[in-house]
């Protein structure tokens, strides 16, 4: 099963993955600025700017139970280029 968030800019003729989903990797670390893996997500929400569809927002809520010391958090990311590059609003909300 392949997981992640995908997008298309050509009317669904082709699709691109914008998250780094690696099943079985409990660290869920994205060192390149992209939204982290989706295998421990409780919820993910996506919104597009109605004035500029190139701007995408992703809210990532985690509820991981693999580590008792893990602090579940919400992470908010945004992109100006349909999801090719991502920026974080902060470490954790």
From TrEMBL:
Gene3D superfamilies: YVTN repeat-like/Quinoprotein amine dehydrogenase
Region (Disordered), start-end ranges: 23-42
InterPro entries: Sialidase_sf, WD40/YVTN_repeat-like_dom_sf
Name the UniProt record assigns to this protein: Sortilin N-terminal domain-containing protein
Organism from which the protein derives: marine sediment metagenome
